[in-house]
Write a structure and sequence with these properties.
Blueprint: E1 2-3, H1 4-7, E2 15-17, E3 23-24, E4 26-28, E5 38-41, H2 54-59, E6 64-67, E7 79-82, H3 86-97, E8 106-111, H4 116-128, E9 133-137, E10 140-143, E11 146-148, H5 157-169, E12 174-178, H6 181-185, E13 194-199, H7 207-210, H8 213-225, E14 232-236, H9 240-247, E15 252-256, E16 265-272, E17 275-282, E18 285-291, H10 296-311, H11 316-325, E19 334-338, E20 342-346, H12 351-364, E21 369-373, H13 383-394, E22 397-400, H14 410-418, E23 428-430, H15 434-444, E24 450-454, E25 461-463, E26 468-470, H16 473-484
Parallel strand pairs: 4-5, 5-6, 6-7, 8-12, 8-13, 9-12, 13-14, 14-15, 20-24, 21-22, 21-24, 22-23
Antiparallel strand pairs: 1-3, 2-7, 9-10, 10-11, 16-17, 17-18, 19-20, 25-26
Helix pairs in contact: 3-5, 4-10, 12-13, 13-14, 15-16
C-alpha cells in the first residue's frame, strides 16, 4: 500500500490539513473515475476547474485531495494538500505511485510537427528485433501482447505511468513515445527519464494553444535541453530548426537527412508506388534498405529510426530485415485502393505535412494528382490559407471539404481555406459533406491518377458542434469502389 506522505515531494506541498499518512489506492484527476482511497488531483482545465468536482470525488471515495486551492471549511473528513502547481504535482505523485517506471526502461521521446507516429512505430519495430519495446502515441499504447487505446498523443501522467509500470512488469526493455508540444508545455512528461530524443521536423501548427511559433518551438526544445551528457539526440539536419536544437544540446547527437553533412543519409534512392529502395550511409557503414512506405518524407522518417536504432546498438542486418517487414502505419500514407488509379489516405493536417505529401506523390504520379482535404475547427486558423497555397501549387485538382468542424461552421472553415488560393486559381471545388467530396474525387479519377485524401488518417469519427459521428475515409473509399465495380 502507498501512503500520501511518501508520494508528496517537498516542492509539491505548500500547506495541508489532516493526516498525510493516509493510504492511496490510485491517482485520478477525473472525479468520475475516483474509487475508494484514491487521491484526487484537482486540475485547472481550459474549460473547467477540477475544484468544482471535489464533492463528487469525495462522494466516490477519495481519501485525499490535492489542489492549488486552499482547503475549504467543508470537506473536513478528507486530507487536503495545497500545491503551487497542480499539473506538476499530478506528474510527480503519479510517477512515485507507479515507482518511477521510466527509470526502469530505456525511454526514447519522438517530437516534431510531422512524422512522429511513423517514426515512433519504425523505431519500435527496429528495437523489437533485439529487445521487447513498448510504445505510446497517437494510435495508442502497446507492447508485444498488449494494446490499449488513448485519447491523447501523449496521455496525462497517471495513464502514462500506469502503462509504463505494466511495460516494466511485462519485461519490456525499451519505451518509445510520441511527445507532443502540448504535453511538454503542460508538464505531462516532467518525470519521464529520457535516454534519447528524436527531432523529426518543425513548422507552423498548434498556434491556438502556443500563440506564437517561438513558444511552440521552445516547447519542442525543452525535451532536448533536459538530456544529459550520457544521452543521445537524433536530429533532422534538413530542417532549419535542427541547427537551433543542436546549439542547445548538452548530449551526444547524430544527424539525419538528405544533406551531405548528415551522419545518416541516402547515397542513392528510388521512389515508386510500391515503396522506397535506398542505400544509406551511416556511422556503421552502408545499409541497403527496402520499404513499403511511400514517398520522400517517409525516407526521412526511416533515416530517423535508423539513427535511433544504431545508437541503441541494433545490428545493421536486423535493421534491413525489420524495415523490409514493416507495414505502413494505419492512416499514414495508406493505399486504400489500387487499380487503374490509386487512392491514398493520410493524416496530413498542416501545410507542411500537406506539402511533403504532395511533393512526394508529384514524383511518382504518372497522371493527375487529385487532393481532398479540409481543416479542423476550433484549432489553429492561421494554417488554413497556407494549406490552400500548398494545395494549389502541387495538386491538379483540389476538393475542399470538412475535417472535424467541432464548434465552427464548416462553410466558414472552407471559406478560410479558399481565401488562400492564388488569384485566378480555378482548379478546385468545395463540398462540405466529406463523404460526397471523396466520392466526387473518385468519380473524377482516371487511369494513372492518384487521389490523396488528407486530414483524418486513422480517425474513424467526425466531430460536429453537437455530436460526434462514425466516419472513416477508408470505409468511404471501399464502399464507393465496391459499388463502382459491382
Amino acid at each position: 500500500m502507498k501512503y500520501l506522505d511518501d508520494l508528496l515531494g517537498k516542492q509539491e506541498s505548500l500547506a495541508w490539513r489532516g493526516d498525510l499518512h493516509v493510504p492511496v489506492s490510485g491517482i485520478e484527476f477525473d472525479s468520475r473515475k475516483i474509487r475508494k482511497n484514491n487521491c484526487y488531483v484537482s486540475i485547472r482545465g481550459f474549460v473547467k476547474d477540477g475544484f468544482a468536482y471535489v464533492s463528487e470525488a469525495i462522494g466516490n471515495g477519495a481519501g485525499a485531495i490535492v489542489s492549488v486551492h486552499p482547503p475549504p471549511q467543508n470537506h473536513l473528513q478528507v486530507t487536503w494538500v495545497q500545491v503551487k502547481n497542480d499539473r506538476r504535482a499530478l506528474s510527480a505523485i503519479a510517477n512515485r505511485f507507479f515507482d518511477d517506471p521510466s527509470r526502469q526502461l530505456q525511454a526514447i521521446g519522438v517530437t516534431g510537427t510531422n512524422g512522429k507516429t511513423t517514426t515512433m512505430s519504425l523505431i519500435q519495430a527496429l528495437l523489437n528485433s533485439e529487445a521487447k519495446t513498448a510504445a505510446i502515441g497517437t494510435l495508442g499504447m502497446n507492447f508485444p501482447g498488449f494494446d490499449q487505446g488513448t485519447k491523447l498523443t501523449t496521455p496525462e501522467a497517471p495513464e502514462l505511468f500506469d502503462f509504463m509500470a505494466k511495460a516494466v512488469k511485462a519485461d519490456c526493455v525499451n519505451l518509445v513515445m510520441e511527445v507532443s508540444s502540448v504535453a511538454l508545455s503542460l508538464g505531462r512528461v516532467d518525470d519521464v527519464s529520457f535516454a534519447q530524443a528524436v527531432f523529426t521536423s518543425f513548422s507552423g501548427d498548434h498556434l491556438d494553444f502556443h500563440q506564437t511559433l517561438e513558444n511552440y518551438f521552445d516547447a519542442k526544445l525543452s525535451l532536448f535541453k533536459r538530456l544529459g551528457s550520457e544521452h543521445w539526440a537524433i536530429i533532422n539536419c534538413d530542417d532549419a530548426s535542427g541547427a537551433r536544437i543542436i546549439r542547445e544540446l548538452n548530449c551526444r547527437y547524430l544527424t539525419f537527412g538528405f544533406s551531405e553533412q548528415a551522419d545518416i543519409r541516402p547515397l542513392k534512392y528510388a521512389f515508386s508506388l510500391e515503396g522506397v529502395k535506398a542505400v544509406l550511409q551511416t556511422p556503421r557503414g552502408k545499409i541497403d534498405i527496402q520499404s513499403r512506405l511511400l514517398g520522400r518524407f517517409n525516407l526521412i522518417n526511416i533515416l530517423a529510426a535508423v539513427g535511433s536504432a544504431l545508437v541503441k546498438g541494433v545490428a545493421v542486418e536486423k535493421i534491413s530485415t525489420a524495415l523490409a517487414a514493416f507495414a505502413p502505419v494505419k492512416g499514414r500514407v495508406n493505399i486504400a485502393h489500387a487499380g487503374d488509379f490509386v487512392v491514398v489516405v493520410d493524416y496530413a493536417h498542416s501545410d507542411d505535412a500537406l506539402e511533403n505529401l504532395l511533393k512526394s506523390f508529384r514524383e511518382i504520379t504518372r497522371g493527375r494528382l487529385i487532393l481532398v482535404f479540409g481543416a479542423g475547427g476550433s484549432r489553429d486558423k492561421t494554417k488554413r490559407p497556407r494549406m490552400a497555397q500548398v494545395a494549389g501549387r502541387y495538386a491538379d485538382w483540389v476538393v475542399v471539404t470538412s475535417d472535424n468542424p467541432r464548434q465552427e461552421d464548416p462553410q466558414a472553415i472552407i471559406a478560410d481555406i479558399v481565401s488562400g488560393f492564388a488569384a485566378g486559381f480555378t482548379s478546385f471545388s468545395t463540398e462540405s459533406d466529406r463523404r460526397t467530396a471523396i466520392e466526387k474525387a473518385l468519380d473524377m479519377a482516371a487511369k494513372g491518377d492518384v487521389v490523396l485524401i488528407a486530414g483524418k488518417g486513422h480517425e474513424d469519427y467526425q466531430i460536429f458542434r453537437e455530436r460526434t459521428v462514425h466516419f472513416d475515409d477508408f470505409e468511404v473509399v471501399r464502399e464507393k469502389m465496391g459499388a463502382s465495380h459491382a
